[in-house]
Specification:
By secondary structure, this protein is mainly alpha-helical. It has four domains: about 140 residues, no CATH class; about 100 residues, no CATH class; about 110 residues, no CATH class; about 200 residues, no CATH class. Helices cover about 60% and strands about 5% of the residues. It has a five-stranded mixed beta sheet, covered by helices on one side. A two-stranded antiparallel ribbon has the order 1-2. Strands 5-6 form a two-stranded antiparallel sheet. The longest helix has 30 residues. The chain starts with a helix and ends in an 8-residue tail after the last strand. The mean pLDDT is about 90.
Length: about 625
């Protein structure tokens, strides 16, 4: 087979299909289930929690409350840029869009890194192998258990995966930006207006999907242009003033929906998403944290190796060979300075600040990888005959597919078909089948469940009323969520002690986090060196000491101050229940608190009773108990 442009394109598409089939073949062969159940349980980590937010965005119902008595809420704030393409497909094929677009994004990833490799002067077959290897890199790391190491774990989790929408969508914008920037450096110019428009569109998509990528991209672009034009940089900007205007217009076209929505967003929702005011005191804490990285041995090694690679690239012997790899040095430099720039100028702070560190690790890896790949190409591959190289390439491709298949099957057996998780999924699907068989009108039904996966399934199937709801699925105020939680506890005849156990601070391995608090209030109660709820120090002594030692970017550590717990308990005691029966109740029997719930069997029929779930429906003339 000749390795021409057309054939390589076929190979990329074919490989994408193979990886896609490896990912999905077992769930379609092993499990007969509703498509919504499938995408929920097959989501990478917690990606399914974005589905309700995505659906609200697609249906332009960002102020949905899931409560007929609550209207005129402010909006959810959503990563709109990472939803655009999925929204179009969702309107056409509903939940199948999440599956079909995985295939599209796999092929796009392979295509982007194929093009990056080509611009770095790798041959077509070499570029194709590089793209396959990089797509499977997290799989290889998991397969060899290297993903358990500190910095390596960042590559394993954040370099690329099919978690929706980050990094599946957001990282593709970032990698495509690298491709564009590399093409600019190759030609040493940015004259064509078309290029400005494309850069504006990609910048807008990054800005509206993951702001930290956007900031890094703009700093990298500035470094690249200064490097190309040097003293003529400002002269270049003046000369291309019209093109720069087109850049901003295309950027605004993509960004305007998010900019408008931010001004309409509910502040309580933004607080649950981790938004903090960044005052001078907090800026100083974060600046000290970023500067402390320079004293960290691991980070020092990264910087030292980067400097050595820079000197190596610029040596007379390698200047021609490795000249184009400077793009990764520019991005690495931008990744080091971007957090400082963000801290100095930003009045607000979101909880994913740790990703600045992760970006540095990812870019450093790409720098190392492409530098060594170039050296291997020059000193080894060029000395091998084309036939031998093709033969070993076939073996390598076979190994890549085999490792991907083996690791996917092993992970699937461990995460999906082990006894406990398979039982949960099976019972989940039995309940779904009952709902579909009995044809409950979900648009007119009210559901009481504390299970997030159940909430997501019902939202995807158009339920309009939920007695309690996950804190990121709605723009309800904190007080409303507190009221829902307390009213439902009292309805289920759970007492104050049960409620206290439900919200109490718990330590899980290396941090404090109660998943119940996380599900309903998310980052409202984040606690670390940078912030606590209400900037309070009202914690038990041991907990307070732990907080003061916690990293300022440990945003997912949640600890409620003592006075706030007492306020919630007092609110529980004094609440006046104004509550109507739900139509459907689904509870997890293995929850130590919720399993004590009382359901009046004169009003409700127990329609399903498994080891994990119990399902009741309200008795009526049309729905009698059998």
């Amino acid at each position: 087979m000749s390795i021409n442009r057309k054939n390589v394109n076929y190979l990329i598409v074919f490989s994408g299909i193979i990886f896609f089939l490896i990912r999905w073949h077992q769930t379609f062969f092993v499990l007969d289930e509703n498509i919504d159940s499938k995408i929920i349980f097959e989501s990478i980590t917690d990606g399914y929690k974005y589905f309700p937010i995505f659906k609200a965005f697609t249906e332009l119902s960002l102020n949905i409350s899931y409560d007929n008595d609550i209207i005129n809420l402010k909006n959810l704030s959503v990563p709109a840029g990472s939803f655009y393409l999925h929204s179009i497909f969702y309107l056409l094929i509903r939940s199948w869009s999440f599956i079909i677009l995985e295939l599209v994004f796999i092929i796009i990833f392979l295509g982007i890194f194929y093009k990056i490799s080509r611009l770095l002067d790798f041959r077509r077959l070499e570029s194709f192998l590089i793209s396959l290897f990089l797509y499977n890199l997290p799989t290889f790391l998991d397969f060899t258990s290297l993903s358990n190491l500190n910095y390596i774990s960042v590559i394993s989790s954040d370099f690329y995966s099919l978690r929706f929408p980050r990094p599946m969508v957001t990282n593709l914008f970032f990698y495509y930006f690298i491709l564009l920037n590399l093409s600019i450096l190759n030609k040493e110019c940015l004259v064509k207006r078309k290029k400005f428009i494309i850069l504006g569109l990609i910048s807008g998509l990054s800005f509206t999907s993951f702001f930290y990528h956007f900031l890094l991209e703009q700093i990298t672009l500035m470094i690249s242009l200064v490097y190309i034009y040097k003293k003529k940089f400002f002269e270049y900007l003046v000369k291309n003033f019209v093109s720069i205007i087109f850049f901003f217009i295309s950027f605004l076209i993509i960004s305007l929906p998010l900019i408008l929505n931010i001004n309409l967003a509910e502040q309580d929702f933004l607080e649950r998403m981790g938004l903090l005011d960044l005052n001078l005191e907090k800026k100083i804490i974060l600046i000290k944290y970023t500067l402390s990285k320079f004293y960290d041995l691991k980070f020092g090694i990264v910087i030292l190796i980067s400097i050595l690679i820079y000197l190596f690239i610029n040596s007379k012997k390698n200047k021609t060979l490795l000249y184009k790899n400077k793009i990764f040095l520019f991005i690495l430099l931008a990744s080091i300075f971007s957090p400082k720039i963000f801290i100095i100028f930003s009045p607000k702070y979101f909880s994913h600040f740790y990703f600045f560190n992760n970006l540095t690790v990812i870019i450093f890896f790409l720098l190392i990888f492409f530098t060594f790949s170039k050296i291997i190409q020059e000193y080894i591959l060029k000395k091998i005959s084309e036939k031998i190289f093709k033969f070993f390439s076939i073996i390598l491709v076979f190994l890549i597919f085999s490792v991907n298949f083996y690791e996917s099957k092993r992970n699937y057996d461990f995460n999906q078909i082990n006894n406990e998780k398979f039982k949960e999924r099976t019972e989940f699907n039995e309940i779904v089948n009952i709902i579909n068989t009995k044809k409950f009108d979900l648009k007119k039904s009210t559901l009481l469940t504390f299970d997030t996966k159940m909430m997501v399934w019902f939202i995807l199937n158009d339920i309009q009323n939920l007695k309690v709801i996950n804190g990121i699925f709605t723009s309800k105020k904190h007080e409303m969520i507190e009221n829902d939680l307390i009213n439902n506890f009292r309805y289920l005849r759970l007492n104050k002690d049960d409620f206290e156990k439900f919200i109490m601070n718990k330590k899980k391995r290396w941090r404090y986090r109660n998943d119940n608090v996380m599900n309903f209030f998310w980052f409202r109660y984040q606690a670390n060196q940078l912030t606590t709820f209400g900037n309070s120090n009202d914690f038990d002594k041991s907990i307070l000491e732990y907080i003061k030692k916690s990293s300022p970017i440990l945003s997912q550590q949640l600890i409620i101050p003592n006075y706030e717990i007492q306020r919630l308990l007092k609110k529980f005691e004094n609440s006046n229940q104004n509550y109507s029966d739900p139509d459907l109740i689904i509870l997890k029997k293995r929850d130590l608190i919720l399993k004590k719930s009382f359901i009046d069997l004169k009003s409700f029929c127990k329609i399903f009773d498994g080891e994990i779930y119990v399902f009741y429906h309200k008795i009526s003339k049309s729905n009698k108990c059998k």
